[in-house]
Amino acid sequence: MRYFDVRRLFAPHLCILLFYVYNIAGTAIPFSFVTFTVHRFCCIVYHTNLFFKTKRWVAICIVGQWIGEFVISLPFIYRRGSYCSNELWMQIYTCTMATFLPSLINTVLNIQIFAYVRSSSQRIQPQVNVIPTNDRWVPVYLTIIISYFVHIDIIILTGTAIVGQL
């Protein structure tokens, strides 16, 4: 910050604004991951609700992220003390809001997504335990490969294709 015009940069009101913007910038990327996780959580867990598949829901997620960042950063505007000092509590607050809180939210939501998907997959059981394979197609594919290297009469190729479909 010292490379800029120091007299204007460290003005009382501008310095508070700079710390406010600094905290918003520090929390923007972690909270965007929280927004993605919230969106994914709602789309997976509430998949029958069509609202979570609309552009309006995406817009609400994005606007909610920005409002959350602005609100979380408010302590920097209403702080007391010398106007241009980055106090220890401010650094701890930024670290907590940029790392621990988003990590906790993402972890909780991802665990809930995992639990929901796991319980859903255990409810759905296959009808047949053994999946039948169709071995009759092997001669068809084999004759096509062989015919690439060796000339095979068209009647034989057609016959293997018909037999393979039976």
From TrEMBL:
**Keyword Disulfide bond applies:** no
Please tell me whether the keyword Heme is annotated for this protein: no
What GO cellular component term, any one, is given? membrane
Kindly state which keywords UniProt assigns to this record, in alphabetical order. Membrane, Transmembrane, Transmembrane helix
- Places the protein is found: Membrane
Q: Indicate the segments forming the G-protein coupled receptors family 1 profile domain, all copies.
A: 1-166
**TM region(s), chain numbering:** 20-45, 57-78, 90-117, 138-163
Name of the protein in question: G-protein coupled receptors family 1 profile domain-containing protein
Q: Can you name the source organism? A: Rotaria sordida
